[in-house]
């Protein structure tokens, strides 16, 4: 849970929203997700980022109980993802392209939501629809992309889930609609204190909204951790050409590029960097993610890195 | 009341940007003792920002003794930063002006001046740390 907005600050341990051990899923002969081990603490807005086809949707569907794993183990909010109605009521899922029923009106959607969800918050739904300026009689098929996304978000929020999963919710939206969607989502998180996992292939969507990041590349988790920790422990080093093997033991090379005279490394380290030969600079979240996507690609696959504090 | 903004290209984490903006406003006298900071929900809704980020920034400011949270009411400025150092600003600005004039006279353009300042600034703050 997000801590109370005006309440006393405490550091009590938070529950784990998603726990995966050796989780894997195969489609035919192709592995969509391999060897996924994760512990996502509660109270975060988690960004799941990676290129198209990296396995993001597969991981989210496994978490939402819409897909059984081929191997390994997953628990969400301490239970099996599809473990009965009570468990399903605790998890909201907004699928890719924020689907709605084109032939049904906005009001029909809210009635449907009320009928299907035991913890339905009718006041929240009504208030959001009003504030968005949606006409309840309007058919969903005739709403704009941004409005459809907001309607799907409203249904997800009014379910009052403990965990809301959103698969590429803003990918198809224009910049303004994208911003409005994320504003609405963040406002709801501040007000109702639930955990969020949302995926995107664009880091810029996640830069402000997420405080926990998972990078998925080639069906493997490359990086998982709190954004502030990730930014504090990754640096760009620029200086005279040097072999990566000659970097100190505590500096793990994430990506490297060389010219005949110069080397540029993105490294992960918990230690201060003292070597005066380097110009050390900060990374943006986007730089960081791109560094993991490019990577030095050692022969036996990259290690799974997890940054903890 | 101040309004926060975020610079996505600065490389400074959003939480630190909020902290710096409050400190900056306190230094410039834009925020006074007793002023209320925007609520977490307001900041979040305006900037599409993670609530934990705002909470972290406000906690940091509280830790520095600059603001205090009054449960259920809001977060209020408890101290200003327009203190003793303000008196020294005039003299320092004069020194800096003189230095800048000397740098231009020596043929440095704006970019060279900025680069020289930043490298010197960084190396001297690293010396302080070491």
From TrEMBL, chain A:
<keyword id="KW-0813">Transport</keyword>
<dbReference type="InterPro" id="IPR027417">
    <property type="entry name" value="P-loop_NTPase"/>
</dbReference>
<keyword id="KW-0547">Nucleotide-binding</keyword>
<dbReference type="Pfam" id="PF00005">
    <property type="entry name" value="ABC_tran"/>
</dbReference>
<dbReference type="InterPro" id="IPR051782">
    <property type="entry name" value="ABC_Transporter_VariousFunc"/>
</dbReference>
<dbReference type="InterPro" id="IPR003593">
    <property type="entry name" value="AAA+_ATPase"/>
</dbReference>
<dbReference type="InterPro" id="IPR003439">
    <property type="entry name" value="ABC_transporter-like_ATP-bd"/>
</dbReference>
<feature type="domain" description="ABC transporter">
    <location>
        <begin position="18"/>
        <end position="243"/>
    </location>
</feature>
<dbReference type="GO" id="GO:0005524">
    <property type="term" value="F:ATP binding"/>
</dbReference>
<protein>
    <submittedName>
        <fullName>ABC transporter ATP-binding protein</fullName>
    </submittedName>
</protein>
<keyword id="KW-0067">ATP-binding</keyword>
């Amino acid at each position: 849970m997000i801590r109370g907005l005006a309440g006393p600050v405490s550091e009590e341990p938070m529950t784990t929203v998603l726990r995966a051990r050796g989780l894997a899923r195969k489609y035919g002969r192709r592995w969509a997700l391999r060897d996924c081990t994760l512990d996502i603490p509660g109270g975060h807005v988690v960004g799941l980022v990676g290129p198209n086809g990296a396995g993001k949707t597969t991981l989210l569907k496994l978490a939402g109980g819409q897909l059984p794993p081929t191997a390994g183990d997953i628990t969400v909010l301490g239970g099996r993802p599809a473990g009965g109605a009570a468990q399903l009521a605790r998890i909201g899922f907004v699928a890719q392209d924020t689907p709605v029923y084109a032939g049904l009106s906005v009001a029909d959607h809210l009635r449907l939501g009320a009928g299907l969800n035991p913890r339905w918050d009718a006041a929240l739904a009504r208030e959001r629809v009003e504030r968005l300026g949606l006409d309840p009689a309007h058919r969903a098929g005739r709403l704009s992309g941004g409005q459809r996304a907001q309607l799907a978000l409203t249904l997800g929020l009014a379910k009052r889930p403990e965990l809301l999963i959103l698969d590429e919710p803003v990918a198809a939206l224009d910049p303004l609609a994208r911003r409005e969607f994320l504003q609405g989502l963040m406002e709801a998180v501040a007000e109702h204190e639930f955990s969020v996992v949302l995926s995107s292939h664009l880091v810029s969507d996640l830069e402000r909204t997420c405080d926990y990041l998972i990078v998925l590349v080639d069906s493997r988790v490359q990086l998982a951790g709190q954004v502030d920790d990730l930014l504090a422990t990754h640096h760009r080093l620029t200086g005279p050409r040097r072999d990566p093997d000659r970097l100190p033991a505590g500096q793990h090379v994430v990506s490297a590029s060389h010219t005949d005279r110069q080397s540029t490394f993105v490294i992960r380290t918990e230690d201060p960097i003292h070597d005066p030969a380097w110009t050390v600079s900060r990374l943006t979240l986007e730089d960081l993610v791109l560094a993991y996507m490019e990577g030095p690609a050692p022969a036996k696959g990259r290690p799974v890195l997890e940054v903890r504090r | 009341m101040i309004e926060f903004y975020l610079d996505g290209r600065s490389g400074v984490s959003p939480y630190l940007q909020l902290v710096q903006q409050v400190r900056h406003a306190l230094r410039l006298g834009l925020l006074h003792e007793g002023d209320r900071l925007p609520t977490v929900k307001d900041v979040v809704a305006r900037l599409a920002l993670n609530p934990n980020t705002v909470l972290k920034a406000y906690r940091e400011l509280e830790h520095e003794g600059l603001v205090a949270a009054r449960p259920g009411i809001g977060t209020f400025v408890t101290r200003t930063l327009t203190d003793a150092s303000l008196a020294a600003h005039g003299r320092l600005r004069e020194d800096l002006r003189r230095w800048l004039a000397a740098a231009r006279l020596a043929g440095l353009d704006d970019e060279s001046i900025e680069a020289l300042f930043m490298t010197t600034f960084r190396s001297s703050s690293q010396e302080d740390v070491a």
